[in-house]
Amino acid sequence: MPDRTRQALAFLLAALALGVIADVLAHEVPDRLNAALWLGAGEVILVALAQAGLVRLAPSQALLAAPLALLTVALIWRDSEALYVLNLLGIATIGLLASPRLRAVGPRRAGLGDYARGSVEMAVAAVAGAPTLALADVDWRAIPVSGRAREAGGAAIGLAAAVPVAAIFGGLLMQADPVFDRLVQRAFVFDVGTVAQHAGTILLCAWLAAGVLREIGRSDTAEPAAGHRRTLGLGQVGVVLAVVDLLFLAFVAVQFRYLFGGAAQVQAITGLTWAEYARRGFFELVTVAALALPLLLLADWSFDQRGRTRVRAFRGLALLMLVLLDIMLASALYRMRLYTAQFGLTEQRFYTTAFMGWLVLVFGWLGATVLRGRRERFGTGALVAGWLVLAALDLANPDALIAGVNLERAERGRPFDAAYAESLSADALPALHRGVPRLGSAGCTAAARLSEHWRRQFEKPRRWTIALARAPRAPIGCVAAPGG
After folding, report:
1. Do 335 and 445 belong to one domain?
2. What are phi and psi of 226, to 5 degrees?
3. For the segment 92-104, what is each residue's pLDDT rounded down to a tens digit?
């Protein structure tokens, strides 16, 4: 049997096994835990294929086993929905490094274009790889067939032919005798919807797994040839950067005079309180910083790097933009602190702040690589920075921090939003149990509401996580006013 056929058959069997495992886990195991177990099964199957010589993993890919395992465990560690999605995204980025394009280029030299094309190729492979695997990669005529296999095949064909014949005669006999009709219906009762659901889960998961396995196992990983592109001069790229720098510089000057200058100046000029002034600009500043990153990368990619003087001028303009962006991010962080002190902390505000932290790391890495002529190292560094931020989030327990900040505000006389606290995951329960009783009688209404909410959640849990399993089941207490 040809090696390609043997590999393809192994991938098809592995994908079918993953499809069946996915169906069993989806119907028998709580959410979150089923996803973690399925990913763990996929990792075990991939290791088994590698041990059998059907998949070749580069040493750099073998090093990814540890972070992949940690992120798989992280899926069931915290109970936060947002953190669960981010961990899934982190797992997807690790899987991206196994694509043929990234294997050919290598993580140390892979640019953003390689990551983008690798992502598209992996997505296309997951969707279209299964039929290619079955119809093109397997040479069915080359598969040796023994005498028993031929007999089994003949029996299967005979069984398929017997089904419609038996259905016709059986239908007539059921019409002839009501007792026989009742017995047959009891023996062959099944829910068409349930069968279709099981079949759909198996088919979908097996289809996607087959495509991904085929993409990972591809041996045609020749490094793509570098294409020719048209570059632009300093007069074109530099003008764009200079105009944006001037705009950013004007905004930073306003920040130093008003936002960093104190509440009195802000209220005198705008008529707004300090917190209201800060509230208007946080998300806009983060958006500006996020959009400036691809602008700098595009400018560097399109700029003609020949000529030392022109390159120095370009890098000076880009470096100035990075400095101004860091100041704007500091302004955004300052606004968020004022914003949180006035209106409280939410998941959106917390994760946007975490995204700012990633941007700060990426901007620093851009200056150390792209602006020093080492553009090919930027993509992997930005990806590693994302993993570091994700690890910090997993360790920090965002929902517990959010609940803690809002409870501290409430202790200082600010209102406590019990309705929003209900939307937090079980990660926040220990902090709520500690903090709500400290609110005194003002927290009794919130305690009763939260206790009832979590009583219903514990009665019919739809997911399983370590945080949910360890969460306190007792009602949240409160301290009533004397004589109340």
Report:
1. no
2. -75, 130
3. 988 888 777 777 7
